Amino acid sequence: MDVETQPLAYKKERKLTRKRRKRYICLCLIAFILGLGLLCLILGLTVFKPKRPTTTVDSITLSDVDFSVNLLPLRVSINLTLDTGVTVRNPNRVSFKYSNSTCYLRFKGNDVGEVPLPAGSIGARDTRGLNLTLSLMADRLLSNSEFYSDVVSGTLPLQTYLRISGKVRILFSFHVVTYSNCDLIIDLGSQRIVNQSCHYRSKL
After folding, report:
1. Torsional sign, CA 112, 116, 121, 122
2. How many CB atoms lie within 10 A of CB 88?
3. Counting beta carbons within 10 angstroms of the beta carbon of residue 159, is it exposed (0 to 12), middle (13 to 18) or buried (19 or more)?
4. The whole model's pTM is what?
5. Which residue in 11, 87, 20 sits closest to 53, CA to CA?
């Protein structure tokens, strides 16, 4: 190779080397991004996999009970309040944010009492206790014809129902809902709860 062609070949070699270096850097960058994305996906499906919050009814007690009945003419007066203790557990590694909810008191499918539950959030792997006071709306109950047959039997079947809806954000936002309902039988003579059965479920 003569003196004139040597610098030209050297420049071509350097240019080719730079192209290879850039290609190598690009491939390394792509591999890093893909590896990071794969790591996030694995963590999202294992360690940070969204879990369903759970609601548990810890206690239901009767308070401020006032019940009386006259047979001739038939006249019923009733007022009662249920103090309900509820625990909501968030098993996720991020906070659970829930929207405004309502806890209902029901008589054979009809709402006869309610209490609002303001929106809030529960921290990662944390639990929150809620004290809810459900007051019976007597006018709704007394207008139900089935109520009077229960009065004659001496028992009053009621149900509490709570639905809490919210979101858990782990890479993406996941909508979660937790439910709790308790079937109660109140003995009107002794004015106490004689039977209680609670059921829970949640969905993601």
Report:
1. negative
2. 23
3. middle
4. 0.76
5. 87
Q: From first to last of the 204 residues of the chain, give the pLDDT tens digit.
A: 444 555 666 666 666 677 777 787 888 888 888 877 777 666 666 656 788 899 999 999 998 888 777 767 767 788 889 999 999 999 998 899 999 999 999 999 999 999 999 999 999 999 999 999 999 998 888 888 888 888 888 889 999 999 999 999 877 788 999 999 999 999 988 889 999 999 999 988
Give me 9's structure tokens.
Answer: 């070949």
Residue 55 and residue 130: Cα distance in Å, rounded? Answer: 10
**116 by DSSP, 3-state: which?**
strand
The tokens of 142 are what?
Answer: 């007394």
Query: Domain residues of the chain, as ranges?
Result: 1-47, 54-203
Provide the CATH number for the domain formed by 54-203 in this structure: 2.60.40.10
Strands in 126-135's sheet, in edge-to-edge order, are: 54-70, 75-90, 126-135
What distance in Å separates the CA atoms of residue 67 and residue 44, rounded to the nearest whole number? Answer: 55
- Give the separation between CA 158 and CA 144, rounded to whole angstroms: 13
- The residue with tokens 């969905």 is 203
Q: What is the largest CA-CA distance in the chain?
A: 129
The rounded distance, in Å, linking the Cα atoms of 2 and 13 is 17
